[in-house]
Amino acid sequence: MKRLSMIASALVLSLGSTAAGAQNADPHGAKGRAYVRVSVAHFFFNENAKIKLGGAPVAGGNATVEDNTPPSLEVGYFILPNISVAATIGLPPKTTLRGAGTLSSAGDLGTVTYGPGVYTVRYHLNPNGPIRPYVGAGVNWTIIFDTDDRALQNFKTSNTFGPALVAGVEVPFNQRFSLFGSVSKAWVSTNSRYNLPTPGGLVPGTARVALDPLVVNAGLQVNF
């Protein structure tokens, strides 16, 4: 939570300083206004894995997930002057799952190509002002497109679904264009299955991996 607070504060201060040079704020009401955002998002995974081999827990076994920085696209719409709905998706990145703890010597276990998606309802504290903070809640739904084997064979993992929170700020330059920054947090887990090669043959295994990503996002907003 300390890291989340520091990142959110830095985004607000950075974008807030831009407001001094911003042009006229939108004089029209926000209700009915649609927008599109293009940006770059960074995923900080807070992973933890419960791993089993042959049905038995692996003592001290864990896994790490490589952080990603994909381009993202968001479409939003104000259904009320202070309330909007938004869908945020990322260009599908590829991440690498690596062994940790007593499994660290295994190295790269497999790779996953996934499509991150967050769908939220947001409350805007000052929707027509020169600085426009907002908070929101919704769900994270991430779709797994592909998996590839490394140390593991027949590696597969499931889509994820779970709650998500978001906070951010929009700073308009004029009625058409704005800059924005946001921080979101999701609580999601994926279920994996695989076969581990051993001298005695393939041993089936499973893992439940909590991902719980913190996502920092910044870019350009186009208002319609």
TrEMBL record:
Transmembrane segments: none annotated. SUPFAM superfamilies: OMPA-like. Residues 1-22 form the signal peptide. InterPro entries: OMP/PagP_B-barrel, OMPW. Keywords: Signal. GO terms for cellular component: outer membrane. GO terms for biological process: transmembrane transport. The keyword Nucleotide-binding does not apply. It holds the Pfam family OmpW. Belongs to the OmpW/AlkL family. PANTHER family: OUTER MEMBRANE PROTEIN W, PTHR36920. This is OmpW family protein.
